[in-house]
Amino acid sequence: MILDRIASPADVHSLDNAQLVELCSQLRESILAYCSREGGHVAPNLATIELTVALHHVFNAPVDKIIFDVSHQTYAHKMLTGRAAAFTDPARASEVSGFSNPRESAFDLFSMGHTSTSVSLACGLAMARDLADQDYRVVAVIGDGALSGGLAFEGLDAAGELNTGLIIIINDNDQSIAENHGGLYQCMAQLRATGGTSPNNPFRALGLDYRYLEQGNDVVELVRALQEVRDAPRPVVLHVHTKKGAGFAPAETNPEAWHHVGPFPLDANAPASAHGSGATYAQITGTYLMDAIQRDRRVVAVSAGTPYIMGFDPQRRSRAGRQFIDVGIAEEHAVTCSAALALAGASPVFGVYGVFLQRAYDQLWHDVCLNSAPVTILDFGASVFGTTAETHLSFFDLSMVSNLPNLLVLAPCCQEEYLSMLNWALDQRALPVLIRVPGAGVISRPDLAPAAPVDPSAATADRATTAPATIDWSRPAYQTVRQGERLAILGLGDFLPFAEQIADAVLDELGFSPTVINPRIASAIDMQELDRIAADHAALITLEDGIVEGGWGQQVVAAMAASGMRMKCYGISKAPGFPDRYQPQELLAKHGMSTAGILADVRTMLGL
After folding, report:
1. Which pLDDT belongs to residue 183?
2. For labeling, which of 79, 139, 219, 596 is most exposed (least CB within 10 Å)?
């Protein structure tokens, strides 16, 4: 196999056209075999195989700098830069991440897994090169909806006046995760339809030179096009039309479903889900919101390019019509637009991964909270049990949002609480509400439910799944789940079962039954309940599924600083840096959050 002889891009330089075509075929087979075993980004990587081979044939990386936006389409790049064994040998699969990582290789320039950054990074590299009087080439590869992000516009705008060599390759596969949205993509459709000759060209309007290549999955044509722009003296856009999922018919037919998947049989026409099976909060949310949309024209579901996390598949998106808005990969716009929707009388519900909400922190602070806009934000994946790649850690969210004025941050422990909170949030008009969707899986706790119990099977049907809320969730009111003695254990959100597990262990090992509290709110303190706890308990511990520094537990401890109680906060410390591809239970234990570790601390706290 040609692939077996590729140790670095230098080995790609000497290949003739026929060998380049064969190399692409071997990469495609290897990537499909790898994804079938391990899961991963199937459709994006298949779309860029020919482009990646052509780049490494024409350019001299790592002297020349190649930046892949988002970097979820870098499997072929990694295989051509000395890491093929991680994809071909199952025993070595853990040696590489799914994203660009300079700790793996000098050919990966940045740790990156978020969208729209490549053009700005390329601008910085080009300017640094010129300041140092060097002459390497700089190439940014952007696509998969990344152009809809505001940072991409800023980078393109700045590139338009750089007046130095910079190549921006637009990998146009007519897709984000789902379909593309926005006026820019309408312009790109016109450019595709006219072979790049449409006068409605936003790239030329920004001062960039422009080339178009229709055959974006033809490695020979890509080599020719790249050779033409390789030494361009000023910024140039090379717009290449690729096919997402190219070479794998199921992914070509349904690129949204095959964007990122779990392991699957190679003969499968439908992917295994990478986002869980059975009852999920995506299904529960989609079911509830579709019912709310049908009952109330004011309810609007808002997505920033990830509609699946809210359960909005193509059918639901079509049925919702104008009451479903996908703004593309543009979280800042989603938050500010939601603020205006809410202040104008609508009831927007913005579903977003916690790790992507941080992009819109300023908009959340300034446009939502400052204006007390009654927006409902559903914070998905915010858990140690969510995505584990260092680029996609969502458990920093409470430190970020729980101290913002006017924002009510709720942390349900079960599906009953979640639906009650969502129902209440849509009904109220006083303040913005963020609901931290449980990330450790769906559990049902009718014993704690403030509303009618939920049948998980109802998540598959578009009908109501909850009775009206019977609690004012804006009022901090901790819930005593178990009344005990000596030790109070506060387990926030999806860590309430962990708190109960610790309580069981304390009873078994230490002979007494602690009090267990379900706080339910992360942005305010129930001082009345805490004072009651202080009056008849000697110690208190908090458990949260997130970063301990600046988090919810430290708010509790600060409020009780004068009580004389022994107290300890448990969470993930920021000190070791960004954990990467970890095992959740191992990470928890490393940060002192094992049953044995907490029991040892309790003994010390109580002098046992």
Report:
1. 85
2. 596
For residue 415, which of 464, 362, 368, 451 has the smallest C-alpha distance? 451
Q: Which of 105, 76, 387, 119 is nearest to 260 (CA)?
A: 387
Residue 530 confidence (pLDDT) above 90: yes
CA–CA distances in Å: residue 290 to residues 248, 284, 319, 416: 33, 10, 8, 18
Q: Where are the beta strands (DSSP E) in 354-453?
A: 376-380, 408-410, 433-436
Residue tagged 């889900």 (tokens): 273
Residues forming beta bridges with residue 142, ordered by sequence position: 170
Strands (E) located in 98-166: 138-143
Residue 490 and residue 478 in contact, taking contact as beta carbons nearer than 8 Å? yes
The pLDDT assigned to 231 comes to: 96
**Distance between CA atoms of 58 and 60, rounded to whole angstroms?**
7
Distance, in Å, from the CA atom of 561 to the CA atom of 543, rounded to the nearest integer, reads 18
| Structure confidence at residue 70 (pLDDT) | 86
Burial class of residue 331, CB neighbours in 10 A (0-12, 13-18, 19+): buried
Three-state DSSP string of 586-602: HHHHHCCCCHHHHHHHH
> Residue 443: which H helix or E strand, with range?
none
**pLDDT given at position 273:** 63
Name the burial class of residue 562, with classes exposed (0-12), middle (13-18) and buried (19+) by CB atoms within 10 angstroms of its CB: exposed
Does residue 370 sit in helix, strand or coil? coil
Mean per-residue pLDDT, 564-581: 92
> What is the per-residue pLDDT for 453?
40
Residue 480 φ/ψ, nearest 5 degrees: -80, 115
Q: Angle 150-159/118-131 helices, nearest 10 degrees?
A: 30
Going by C-alpha positions, the residue among 19, 58, 76, 61 that lies closest to residue 225 is 58
The whole-angstrom separation of Cα 467 and Cα 387 is: 32
Q: pLDDT band at 468, cuts 50/70/90? A: very low
- pLDDT band at residue 470 using 50, 70 and 90 as cut-offs: low
Query: How many Cα atoms occupy the beta-carbon half-sphere of 419 within 13 Å?
Result: 35
Going by pLDDT thresholds of 50, 70 and 90, the confidence category of residue 272 is low
Backbone angles phi, psi at 143, to 5 degrees: 180, -160
Q: Give pLDDT tens digits for 75-118.
A: 999 999 999 999 999 999 999 998 999 999 999 999 888 889 99
Residue 449 or 424, more confident:
424
Strand extents, DSSP E, 181-304: 209-213, 236-241, 299-303
H/E/C letters for each residue in 13-74? Answer: HCCCHHHHHHHHHHHHHHHHHHHHHHCECHHHHHHCHHHHHHHHHHCCCCCCEEEECCCCCC
Q: What is the pLDDT of residue 396?
A: 92
Running DSSP on this structure, what letter comes out for residue 456?
Answer: G
- How many Å apart are CA 470 and CA 415, to the nearest integer? 15
Amino acid at 148: S
Average pLDDT value for residue range 396-410: 94
Model pLDDT, residue 459: 44
User: pTM above the 0.70 mark?
Assistant: yes
